[in-house]
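Notes from hallway chat w/ T.B., transcribed later so I don't forget. T.B. wanted the structure written out for a chain they're using in a teaching module, and asked if we could keep both sequence and structure tokens in one place. Agreed to drop them here.
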Amino acid sequence: MPASLKGRSLITLRDFSREEIRYLLDLSHRVKKEKHSGKERFKGLTIALLFEKRSTRTRCAFETAFGEEGGHPVFLSNADIQLGAKESIEDTARVLGRMFDCIQFRGFKTSNALALAEYSGVPVYNGLTDDFHPTQILADLMTVEESKGRLEGVKLVYVGDGRNNVANSLMIGCSKMGTDITVASPHSLLPSENIVTMSREFAEKSGSLVEITTDVKKAVKDADVIYTDVWASMGEEDKLAERVKLLKPYQVNSTLMESTGKDNTVFMHCLPAVKGNEVTAEVVDGSRSEAWNQAENRKHTIKAVMLATLGLE
């Protein structure tokens, strides 16, 4: 295990080298094979699970990954603690760092995750913020490897809202690992220049490509993977009607899947999916959908991250 991973927080994959991500993915494949081994590597340890936003996969992945190996996860929502309200984030971090071995944070501001990491003194894992979703992208990269046998040279096309946390993190993760990524979105939802510039710098080192376009039909040609996400992220529900009109041409349906010109293009979605909006039921529930494997792989990649950063592997 790279010594550089012990004690680290995972806020964004931007802060991790290609070699470190490679190690986490290799460990993820291994712990998936070991899932019924009866190991108790987290025995005697505790993790605080802080949730400002609702969750199915993130909460279940952290709780089951930690608990099945003997650890004790403690779920804490806004209704349970004073997260940034009566008590500052910094003071909450100081207290939790004295009681827990690690912390997961799922919320709105990335700055809150960074503050928890700075003041707690224990590893902090970003389970989703408005800017980044690194644990999701580790599961995505693992799923691409399972499906395609490699990451290098694979063409992944993300379709839809190109400036959300999943698109941001996919661009970073793919560009670091040698996977070509194209983001196809309307002009108003294209990714930020900062993320594009950063990702292209990573891509130069890995030999991959980062392309940005509004032409979805052109974008998906020769795609190995088509990926989409909901059209209105949590906290943006009031924008859904507007987004439906704007993004309807970017729906992933059978016609778009056929536009790749390949019969082995797979579909990916971080879930939950709004069937009939960003994707049709026949695609997400079809034989070429990897969405359910992605969901399972959240658990294995999260376990790998915790094992590595707690120095247990």
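Follow-up for T.B.: The mean pLDDT is 96. Might be a good example for the class.
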